[in-house]
Design a protein that fits this description.
47% of the residues lie in helices and 19% in strands. It has 292 residues and is an alpha/beta fold. The chain has two domains: 101 residues, no CATH class; 161 residues, Rossmann fold (3-Layer(aba) Sandwich).
């Protein structure tokens, strides 16, 4: 990676960095994103410089990019974008399945998706667990204040339900690429309340991207983060345009201190396993296993 301060700031420099940073394996998403990306960096060269220099936040850059995309009125296939992401999803699914590898003690397993949107993955995982005869029944719960669908397979819950003690303890909790889209003032109380409401031998999976394992604020790290933020915004705009263009959209990646905050507030003893997603070292899968 180049040292930003010693290079002329132009698109050739960004193209070089992008080729080193990007982890997209499918040509469709890569082509569509890179086309918009480099036009954006030409128009907003000064703002991109401010972000790399640390004067612009992830949220500020992301909002600028989303507004730019909306004005372009681009036509990108959401189905093809999902196809592009499938390889990473399969790798993640393989890791999660490798952790859930034996029968549960209870006949009925309660699975919670935190920020699950449509809950497609949670349903897929539930069907897998049933097929392996790890339990007899599964109830799927969902906590997502912003994106919900009419799906009778998912029991969407609110904190009001939780406070009324109407929710059973969970055996599996999944938070997949969702925490960095929740503002800090709304992130920790719901998450910690739910993750501490678990049965013995419960699995908690937190899947996040960003600099939360490295407190590296160098220009090189900010360039990597630049592409990460803009790719995140681009994909979410294509898949969830109404949410991205609303006031509910938010992005700020977790820091190392945020991970420490989660762990210091867990009310049970746990074993921890953390692994990078193969082919995308910027994404980490953290698995907490309730041992008592």
């Amino acid at each position: 990676m180049f040292d930003y301060c010693s290079q002329e700031f132009d698109n050739n420099f960004l193209l070089h960095c992008f080729s080193e940073c990007n982890n997209m394996q499918n040509d469709y998403l890569l082509d569509e994103f890179s086309s918009v990306l480099f036009d954006f960096t030409k128009v907003y060269k000064k703002r991109v410089y401010e972000f790399i220099s640390g004067y612009l936040t992830c949220m500020q850059l992301s909002r600028l990019f989303i507004d730019y995309i909306a004005d372009l009125d681009i036509e990108v296939s959401s189905n093809k974008v999902l196809d592009s992401l499938e390889e990473g999803e399969l790798k993640l699914d393989k890791i999660i399945r490798s952790r859930i590898c034996k029968p549960f003690k209870n006949e009925t397993v309660n699975l919670l998706g935190f920020g699950l949107a449509s809950g497609e993955y949670e349903i897929k995982l539930a069907n897998y667990i049933l097929s392996q005869q790890y339990c007899k029944h599964i109830k799927i719960f969902g906590y997502d204040p912003f994106v919900q669908t009419d799906n009778n397979q998912i029991n969407y819950i609110t904190l009001a339900d939780f406070n009324k003690k109407q929710i059973p303890k969970f055996d599996i909790i999944l938070s997949r690429w969702s925490l960095h889209h929740v503002q800090a003032c709304e992130r920790w109380m719901p998450l910690l309340s739910l993750v501490n409401h678990v049965n013995l031998n419960a699995h908690i999976f937190i899947v996040e991207e960003g600099p939360f394992l490295l407190n590296d604020i160098s220009n090189n790290r900010r360039i990597t983060l630049l592409f990460q933020v803009l790719e995140d915004a681009f994909v979410n705009y294509i898949l969830f345009p109404r949410w991205c263009c609303s006031n509910n959209y938010y992005i700020e990646y977790l820091s190392e201190n945020d991970i420490e905050r989660i762990e210091s507030n867990l009310s049970f003893e746990y074993a921890k396993n953390s692994i990078s997603l193969p082919g995308n070292e910027g994404t980490q899968i953290i698995n907490y296993y309730n041992t008592r």
